Amino acid sequence: LLMKKNIKLNLKILSLSYNLLGKVGWFDFGTALAKCKKLSNLTLNLMFTQTLDGDIFGLVSGLKNGSNISNITFKKLQKQFIYFFILFIYYLIFQIFNILLQYLL
């Protein structure tokens, strides 16, 4: 994996992987990636819960610590925002339905 020039890394950082990778240390993991001599482009797709923001910060700090990577694309996808948005739409539909029922009765 670390011998390729371009890496697209999909990290789904949830509680299970946090328990496994928390022992390694995100800063050290990012530094190891960044110091790989053949790696020049890195795309990170991160999906995580809000409680792990500090670990993402450690990973990005570790990546910036190494100097060999010239292009880091950092995409942060938060599931909780998507879930909140879906629940909000359901809430709006319910409220509209409730108002229509009151108007008809």
TrEMBL record:
The chain crosses the membrane at residues 81-104. The keyword rRNA-binding does not apply. InterPro entries: LRR_dom_sf. Keywords: Membrane, Transmembrane, Transmembrane helix. This is Transmembrane protein, putative.
